[in-house]
Write a structure and sequence with these properties.
Layout (H helix, E strand, L loop, with lengths): L1 H5 L4 H8 L3 H13 L12 H9 L16 H7 L7 H11 L6 H14 L13 E6 L4 E4 L6 E11 L5 E6 L4 H15 L5 E4 L6 E3 L6 E2 L5
Parallel strand pairs: 1-5
Antiparallel strand pairs: 1-3, 2-3, 3-4, 6-7
Length: about 220
């Protein structure tokens, strides 16, 4: 959005390109101008920091609420981490604010904040076109029944874009020796191969990350 706006593209045309309403684009551009930002963004400006600067106060209405509220933008970023849910965030909030909101009201206010954020871009997937692959970020404990030794295993996950049909398997590592066989098992499970395999920037799959032209690991390719 910022790049197109810098190039002189109208808000209406940007909206068509990104699949968003013109009013949403105009609101976001106003937030960017108010935050003193422009394209290109500084390299050190992470997604979390950018979200905080643009939407840090979107969920609060000064003078209308009697209880202390958390930083909703920070919580929205925390919610994206593995193992974090609204119950965990609420419990942490109540530890700091024992007189704060109850769980149901806390969830209502958070959802209200989320609705004020820009909508995500809808992506339409054709059946059989793409499979998205990555490791879940959570490990599972495997117990050796003979020795009682506990060892943690990684969880490989593959999801077909159109149907959300999912394949998962456990492996000891995320190394190439486990990454490649996981794909073989995945294709066998699906009974076919999609047009595209879309990995995240996992080291076993991507040697050099790039939005436009990533360098794929030779074995992966």
């Amino acid at each position: 959005m910022l790049r197109l706006a810098r190039d002189g593209v109208s808000a209406q045309e940007i909206g068509r390109t990104l699949g968003a309403a013109r009013s949403t684009i105009q609101d976001n551009l106003q937030r960017v101008a108010k935050a003193g930002l422009s394209w290109p963004l500084p390299a050190e400006l992470t997604d979390a920091v950018l979200e905080q600067r643009l939407f840090g106060h979107a969920g609060s209405k000064p003078g209308l609420r009697r209880r202390a509220e958390p930083d909703w933008a920070t919580l929205a970023c925390e919610l994206k981490r593995p193992g974090v849910n609204l119950m965990v965030l609420w419990e942490e909030y109540r530890e700091v604010r024992p007189d704060g909101y109850g769980y149901s009201r806390f969830c209502d206010l958070f959802r209200e904040f989320e609705r004020r954020l820009s909508p995500t871009m809808r992506q339409d997937h054709v059946a059989g076109d793409k499979v998205f692959v990555h490791y879940s970020g959570k490990k599972i404990a495997i117990v050796n029944r003979d020795t009682g030794e506990i060892r943690e295993a990684e969880i490989f996950v593959a999801v077909l874009g159109a149907s959300n049909y999912t394949y998962a398997e456990a492996s000891w590592t995320q190394a190439l020796s486990d990454w490649i066989p996981a794909h073989v098992h995945m294709f066998r499970f699906f009974g076919g191969v999609p047009r595209l395999v879309v990995p995240d920037n996992l080291k076993s799959g991507v040697n050099r990350a790039c939005f436009y032209d990533p360098e794929i690991n030779r074995s992966m390719a």
